[in-house]
């Protein structure tokens, strides 16, 4: 099986923390639609497997008109074989969701929504420069559920300077009340070239406090586990049977095709990424040129990526997988590091290999980097 990701590079406004590729020039949506359909045709041979996940991300996919959305979906169905049980996700901002829009999506095959809630606290939304209100988030959830979409994922952002522990618990309680089956909880990160980075640099707001974020993370984990959600990946929690199949496939190393400006693709042997510029993307595809850069993946690069994503997941890494895919030298290397970390109570032994201990999960990426194989070791 394989997946398709389509990046919709448009937003109504820029959130202060966001560094994803997007434009507020929504007048170019039709040009984008034509270009991405051309890219679908040109990439028809990239994936040999049937498609079991289709994901519209962004940006803001809910800004697409009904016509534009259906044109893209029809082209996907024309070119790629979709599995009968395909997981079809659309990211949406709460202020865009209407009963008519949800009906349109369902008719096209959408069976999962990922909502950018971020918080139900008005002061938090204002601080982030979000386009929606808390009341619109409530309304969006109710509309989706009333229209028969129960597979809903909600995004939350924690660790912002103004968000108290009480605010965070209130957000979690609201989502539990709605019985949202999947949550993606992200620590606020300060990326260069964002408004947030500039405001911190000029001392208009306080810098991110890692202890504050760590405490928020503990609250999220404890609360969500207490109401029956499994912590299956560092930032993701789900009720049984509601894990994100699309993202899980990323973490398992399943091939995927990325379409649209800045989208990435992976076919087991190489990774490629499209130009992060809408006008260059349009111009290239008008000439039937795919505007991407490509990196052939060396064995140690594949190993490092496996360690990064597997240690973020509940199951951790598999010793047998390392032996089968990278060789005995990589297995001995990972085993040596893991045994050192067991002594420090950072990882625990599992039936298949090693996984992070609960207390170490907030520091997953840093710990994973200690397992990396650098070029000079070969």
Q: β content, as a range? A: 15-25%
* CATH architecture label name of the largest domain: Alpha-Beta Barrel
Number of separate domains: 2
Which parts are unreliable, with pLDDT below 50 for 5 consecutive residues or more? none
Oligomerization category of the chains in this entry: single chain
CA radius of gyration: 21 Å
**Strand order in the largest sheet:** 7-8-6-5-4-3-2-1-9
Count of alpha and pi helical runs? 14
Name given to the CATH homologous superfamily of the largest domain: Aldolase class I
The average pLDDT value, as a whole number, equals: 95
Class from helix and strand fractions: alpha/beta
Morphology call: globular
User: Helix amount, in percent?
Assistant: 40-55%
Question: Could you tell me how far the N terminus lies from the C terminus, measured between alpha carbons in angstroms?
Answer: 32 Å
Write the H/E string, N to C: EHEHEHEHHEHEHHEEHEEEHEHEHHEEH
What profile does the largest beta sheet have?
A: 9 strands, mixed
Number of β-strand runs: 15
